[in-house]
Amino acid sequence: MEAKPLVTYTGNCALFEDLRGSVCPAVAAEATEWRRSLGRHRMVHIDANWIEFDRDRLSANRETLLNRQYLHTFWTDCSDSDEYKNTVKQEILLWMQELKAKSQWDWLIVVVEDNARKTPAKTTSKLLKSTVWDRIRNDFPSKNIDRVCTFVRPSRGELGSRNASLDTFLGQFRTALLHGLNREIGYYEDKLREKREARNNPGWSFIDFYFMQEQLAFVFETMTLYEDALVQYDELDALLTQFVINAAQGEAPPWLQTLTDCRSSWRALCMKSQNSSQASSNSTLSNDRQLEQENVSIQFSEGNGSLLDLRNLLFLRICNILILLCRPWEMARRALPYIQNAQVELKSLGVELNCVGAVDAWALAGFLETLVVSERYNDSTQVESYSLHTAQLWAHARLKMKSLGVLCGLMPRDSPTSEQIHLVVNILAGLGDDPRAGESELSPCRRISEALSSKESFMRHYKDVCEIAMGTFKHVGRLRSARLIGKDLAEFYLDKDEPQMAVQFLQDLLKMYLTERWGPLAVLTQKQLLQCYQLLSYDLLYLHTVLMLATNRSLDQRERRHFFDDVLATKDRLGKSMKNNKNLTFAFAGILSLDDLRIDSDSSVLTLNSDIRLKLTITSHLLAEVKMRKVIVPCEKLEEEGQIGGTPRKGSMILAPGGKRPPPKISVQQGTQTNSILLVCSNQHQVLSRQDSSNLGSPSSQDIVRVKSDTQFVAKDVYLAPGQNVIGLAFRTNQWGSYEMRQLVMEWDHLGLVEDLENSIHHNTRVNIIQEKCRLSFELPSEELLAGVAQSVRLSVSAGSRSVAAGSIVALKSSPGLHFDKDLLVIPNEIAAFEFRSFSVGLRSSFCDQWTSKGVVHEVVATAGWEDGQDGHGNRSEAQAAQVRIKLLFMPPFVVTHKLLTCDTAKFIQVEVTGRSLQFFAVSNPRLDCPSGFAAQILEEVGTFKVNSRYPTAFVWQLESPELVEMPLELKFALDFYWEAGNQSGFYSASFKLEAFKTLYSVHATVDPESQGHCKVDVLCKLNIRVQRIPLSVKESKSEQDPIHLSMEIIADSALWALQGRNSDTFILSDQEFTSSVEMKPLVRGYLPIPQVRLSKYHPPCKEDMNKELAKATLEPFLPGQVYNWSHAAQAHVPTAAHPDGK
């Protein structure tokens, strides 16, 4: 039987067979919610196997979940009530009696209707008779779910379309089937828990418990609950592991003892059945699960099953679920712990198989089988996660294959004996028959069989596995693991007498050791490489490697002396055989080290024809003093300013081989968040620079290109002693420009040692031969610049890289308003190169706008043009000009402000002088010039006053004017000043205008109580207002006595006074006086300021004018001095009001 739940059908079987094609496939088409206890609700796809009802197959056995009938259905298409009553009902009753006799409580009655019968026939009766479906529902009721359902038989034209009644039936069917499954699974889980709790009882067997819980996993798998099925197998795995741990510390139970006694079988893991059953996504297994369980159970009961077989079976089920979950990478992840755990269990239980190497063969077959299956089901979206785990599997498969090769005498230096050949036969026999026989691809068992069949076949398969493992490790970025596999492969090739194949692996391994600074391991690898180079006659590689060993300080002196003598002999031999005196070129790394490089010159600035000395500090790791035929530092001229200099650019930093990284420069900064700080590394491009390991472990004669240049530092016949040496190299400049030191080359006979300086991060390798033009600059005084007085600034002339001859002229120009004491500045004496002179330039700015505090900005331009001396090639250079522009801000020494004061008809002018500088100015003789007919009389004669920004002064004049005054009135103020700091005196004047002068109106405001006495709080009082026209001359009165429209506004403090009426009004002043009164209440007691009255001109609206602006009423304020308020500072006394009771 299949693993799907069984559903029986009876009644009209022909009807069901007719509908099978439309009903059965639709059951698993949609997901259904499976509601379990404790809120464990899941969406499941449920399918069923339909069989005809057979009373003989009914069973009340609930100890198994497989081959169980979970739901029984009765099908009928009866539409006649009499037929139902006489026939169908009796069949249903008999059917249900048989179910109850076998304790079958899950049933479903299906009534199928035809489309023709769906439309009721015409009848004269108003009451329709109940249908058969209604009668069945009444005769066979159910409590929990609806067990009587109906649907309309789909016609031939509706087979491919949606049928609402059929969908409803399918939903009811799935609910009924899940209800039956839930009942049986709940009971089965309870029995399973009881059996697990009894695991310590005598006679308990894990094998029986395994098959029991496996049935639950099968059901979950059928319902597409793969995660729940996986949990069942994980629980079984954990339980078995715990039993083995307990048995290792004490006595093993009988069932485990039976498993460990079977030591003649180590069958290989095979997932063929599971893989072939995966025909499409979300499809379930269709094997006879019960038969399979019975066969496996018989195998273990007869003693033919071992612990490894049980582990194979358990891991097989887990892998099947993981494939259904589309997680082949997790299968690869679980494989390694599974195989290692099985080996540890055998060791802890003291189980030794009948054949040596059987466990390794079983583990190798398991690794290869997992790799084959995971590769088959892997997709492109899981390559990274998949490769991360398969890399370890390939690595362990390589180790197991190597172990078998050593055991069976299949390694390069071994030859298999008859005992070893017999061992191979036993190992292969224990693996059993190849379950994948007949497949086109190479199966794991076939690969093992071929590998152990002959020495040549073993070496071929071993190399394939090693290369796949290395490639996979490189793909996931684990280069160290790949290099270690390459180390074993190199040793394999050395044993095979193929050193040319081992060289590349050893060189890659050496690069890794040198990069990660594994000194002792690097020495061992170099010795192996030395052996390979000697066998292959690679003289250059041999010389470089032996030179590296001779300078390695981790070796003892005896070994280093031996290698150094070998260096001298090899170098001399190669020197004689070299053609055209071609030099060998090796890198500095490990042989010499450049500690310091600096420019040593007599002057801090390098100019043309100057002598430069380059000081090198070099540490020699050689054992004896050697003579360097020549030491050269070639320089390359930089054509562009942005070309790479001494400091490498960010993003292009490459650390030289063997070079030390600079220490990080860490600074602490405040973070943007509260209570946070930032650690910032300013030289991260140097600290995180890439290590250039492309030339590690191999000579650089094929990779390093020596720089050829006519400009170079040179030293000859230099003796280099062991340890630190200081070498000086000379160079004379003959051209302008910037030069970059590219290499350091030390020629030891025909051997050239080169250090690349292009990307050095330790030294400044740039030499700048400066060609600097002259520069002009202004030096401003520490105090501010003031207008109206003479001051001076300093003009600095920097000669640059060439001298300035005596008599050279600097021309000065400025914007209008600024004057120099002289427009041409003559340099009296010669200015040498890179020196500067400072000259004083006197200047004076005119007064700016005296009524504002803003200054005036003047632009000054200084231009120098002269011919320099000779250039670097001995030719006369063209005339070069230097120019500087600067903007100077001149502030006024003081600012004058004026104010018109009025007392009825009397007028006064107040002029205030405020300093704008901290420096004192003495002012005297103030005067005010008026037009003819006016007289200005200063109120108080003054002497000399000192003013600055902190101490202002003011002067007041009373103006006496004739009756007729022409407006505006222009006045001129003047005074004399003396600047003490600059010992300068001067004259200062300012003009201003008055738009209004005469007083036109006066306003009187008084506060009077309603009754006699004083004003009281919250008691009404009157504000009496009187507006009076100022009498004018008879000549003016004819025009001024005309009626005028005025507006009056009362401005009162709302916290002191409460106005009872309007606070503004308009009136016509036709006579000399206008009076008005307003009621108000004082709100507080005390001396209260009287509300102020503001008078304005009122322009009534002009209705005839089409202009919208003129059609509105407007107010025009009076100019200062035209209205005088007599009660401007008057106050009213408001005492406390008396208490009502007289107290």
Q: Which features characterize this protein?
A:
alpha+beta, 28% strand, 7-stranded mixed sheet, 24 helices, 5-stranded parallel sheet, Immunoglobulin-like, 1143 residues
Low-pLDDT segments = 118-129, 274-288, 641-660, 691-702, 869-879
Please tell me the overall pLDDT.
81
- Total DSSP helices: 24
Shape estimate: flat
Strand-pairing-aware structural class: alpha+beta
Total E-strand runs = 49
**Rg, Cα atoms, Å:** 56 Å
- Amount of helix: 25-40%
Beta-sheet strand percentage? 25-35%
Structural account:
This protein is of the alpha+beta class and 1143 residues long. Among the domains are: 6-117 and 128-198; 501-579; 585-638 and 662-687 and 699-769, Sandwich (Immunoglobulin-like); 775-866 and 881-891, Immunoglobulin-like (Sandwich), CATH 2.60.40.10; 894-994, Gamma-adaptin ear (GAE) domain (Immunoglobulin-like, Sandwich); 1001-1033 and 1040-1102 and 1109-1134, Immunoglobulin-like (Sandwich). The strands form 13 sheets. Strands 8, 11, 16, 18, 19, 20 and 21 form a seven-stranded mixed β-sheet that branches. Helix 7 packs antiparallel against helix 11, helix 16 (444-453) crosses helix 17 (455-475) and helix 18 (479-495) runs antiparallel to helix 19.
Question: Topology, pairings included?
Answer:
Layout: E1 6-11, H1 13-27, E2 32-35, E3 41-44, E4 49-52, E5 69-76, H2 81-101, E6 107-113, H3 115-118, H4 132-139, E7 148-152, H5 164-197, H6 206-222, H7 226-249, H8 254-261, H9 272-277, H10 289-301, H11 307-324, H12 328-348, H13 358-377, H14 383-407, H15 418-431, H16 444-453, H17 455-475, H18 479-495, H19 499-515, H20 519-536, H21 539-550, H22 557-577, E8 584-587, E9 592-601, E10 611-620, E11 626-637, E12 654-655, E13 666-670, E14 677-681, H23 684-687, E15 690-691, E16 712-720, E17 723-732, E18 737-741, E19 743-748, E20 751-756, E21 766-769, E22 775-779, E23 785-786, E24 790-798, E25 809-814, E26 818-820, E27 824-826, E28 836-845, E29 856-866, E30 880-891, E31 894-903, E32 906-915, E33 921-929, E34 935-938, E35 944-947, E36 953-960, E37 969-979, E38 984-994, E39 1001-1009, E40 1021-1029, H24 1034-1040, E41 1044-1051, E42 1057-1059, E43 1064-1069, E44 1073-1082, E45 1086-1089, E46 1092-1099, E47 1114-1117, E48 1123-1125, E49 1131-1134
Parallel strand pairs: 1-4, 1-5, 5-6, 6-7, 8-20, 12-15, 23-30, 39-48
Antiparallel strand pairs: 2-3, 9-10, 10-17, 11-16, 11-18, 11-19, 13-14, 18-21, 19-20, 22-24, 24-28, 25-27, 25-29, 26-28, 29-30, 31-32, 32-36, 33-35, 33-37, 34-36, 37-38, 39-40, 40-44, 41-43, 41-46, 42-44, 45-49, 46-47
Helix pairs in contact: 5-6, 6-7, 6-10, 7-11, 11-12, 12-13, 12-14, 13-14, 13-15, 14-17, 16-17, 17-18, 18-19, 19-20, 20-21, 21-22
